[in-house]
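Morning - pyridoxal-5'-phosphate inputs below, output right after.
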Amino acid sequence: MTSLIRSAIRAMKGYTPGEQPREDGIIKLNTNENPYPPSPRVFEAIQTALTGDRLRKYPDPVGTLFRQTAARLHDHDPEGILIGNGSDDILTIVTRAFVPEGGLIASPTPSYLLYRTLAELQGARFQNVPFTADWQLPLPWPASDAQLTFVANPNSPTGTLVSLANLEAFARACPNPLVIDEAYVDFADHDARPLLRHPQVILTRTLSKSYALAGIRFGYALGSPAVIRELSKVKDSYNCDVLSLAAATAALQDQDYLRATLATIRATRTRLDGELQRLGFATLPSSANFLWCTHPSRAARTLYEELKRRNILVRYMVYEGFGEGLRISVGSDAEIDRLLHEVRSLV
Ligand SMILES: *Cc1c(COP(=O)(O)O)cnc(C)c1O
């Protein structure tokens, strides 16, 4: 029976998400979740959505209220906003809409591994292009014939940020669809909204990281209304449910709460970076809620395993042509204190 599965699917390994342990007592610094709870308004909104008749009926397929809220926040046309079941859903929709079988998807490397998986699912080719030495996109871009380019900005696993000027030059030189995956942009000093002037540019956002709603599954895209209308044809009619729409809308409405958590996480990031460097680690300058680090004499794999034995989970990653390292999420101050305490005994 499996021989009837499309050969592109049989040939692929499948995306491996980070470990999600179910036991208590584990300090989880491996998938960049927010260590702080979502805004109290999110809980109220979910409670309200649970009253009356709302679960019996289908949700609003386009998420009108969410779109209005996001449009106001980003100063963008509500018709240019697409809702998704997590931003991974948006990335899938964009791939299905733009990339033909046998087509080409490009992305700088090292970056989010899901992009390659999306290419494989679509039966498309995938081209990695190394970042420049200062973590920008090389121009001219060697894969300018790609039907779709994904740029995570800030990037994962490095946390580095491509400048607006560099993205602008890229968009001017390359007329093909460019998705700027801004999953971590709230932790950075600038976002790429000025690039929305270019009709081929799509920005994707998630509620999973800065808004502490990874368990809810909600993301969205900003783009030109004409493109978003086409993308809407590809999505499941009801890809976001009543509860996630209520939660996401309430979260966006509480920008004061967001600002407060972001300030805390950024301060902890600075502290973690300084301490890791004092312990001999090389770190990359991070605009996200995690740090990429390597140690000159301790293998990343060993550090990962030793920390895991001590109930601290970080992400060990290896990239062809780039090497291995640890990606450590910025947890709460107490979690980072525990991490640093254990790391001190290991290096
Ligand atoms: C976490 C992450 C996402 C996806 O987040 P969702 O939980 O699916 O919204 C997308 N891109 C990058 C680079 C990420 O790290």
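Note: The chain has a mean pLDDT of 97.

O.
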